[in-house]
TrEMBL record:
Main location: other
Compartments where found: Cell envelope
A molecular function GO annotation: oxidoreductase activity
PROSITE patterns from the UniProt entry: THIOREDOXIN_2 (PS51352)
GO biological process: cytochrome complex assembly
InterPro entries (UniProt xref): Redoxin, Thioredoxin-like_sf, Thioredoxin_domain, Thioredoxin_ResA/DsbE_sf
Protein name, UniProt field: Thioredoxin domain-containing protein
């Protein structure tokens, strides 16, 4: 009887490991948009208190990232977004929206990462943008084409190579 129980437990452990491996290989952090939807409109303030509206970017592909200083994945991802902006120049606008943190917290984090002034940094005290894209992981990034449609939505972190590949889809 003990041997049978041991085999059952071993079988369950193997199934769990296979499930974890399969989940890690899938792209479940990507949301495939079968029907592209319009990107949400926003009206948020930058670090200087200037109101920035989504309407200002009409006709330009956008990469919009939701981040927070408490997010461990944002430590490298935010600097990669700055490199992405520099590489693509005027072809895209990279916008990083801080999730409901005070200006001092957001600015200290972005200053330490060397991204302040290199990408568009906005504050979202109500966390409305994150909610408007159906966010539930951190970070969340949408890739918006020049017509204002979300063509790609990434849940979780990305490296620079993946960012470049996703930007190519919206150009």
């Amino acid at each position: 009887m003990a041997r049978k129980t041991l085999y059952i437990i071993a079988g369950i452990v193997v199934l769990i490991i296979l499930g974890i491996l399969a989940a890690n290989r899938s792209n479940e952090n990507d949301i495939t948009e079968l029907q592209p939807r319009q990107a949400p409109e926003f009206r948020l303030k930058d670090y200087g208190g200037r109101e920035v509206s989504s309407a200002e970017f009409k006709g330009k592909p956008l990469v919009i990232n939701s981040w927070a200083a408490w997010c461990p994945f944002c430590v490298q991802e935010l600097p990669d977004f700055a490199v992405l902006q520099e590489e693509f120049g005027d072809k895209i606008a990279v916008i990083a929206v801080d999730r409901a943190e005070p200006l001092a917290t957001a600015k200290e984090f972005s200053d330490r990462r060397g991204v302040t002034g290199r990408i568009i940094l906005l504050l979202d005290p109500e966390d409305s943008f994150y909610q408007s894209v159906g966010g539930f992981s951190m970070p969340e990034t949408i890739f918006v084409d020049r017509d204002g449609f979300i063509r790609d939505h990434k849940r979780g972190p990305m490296d620079l190579i993946e960012m470049r590949r996703r930007v190519e889809k919206i150009l």
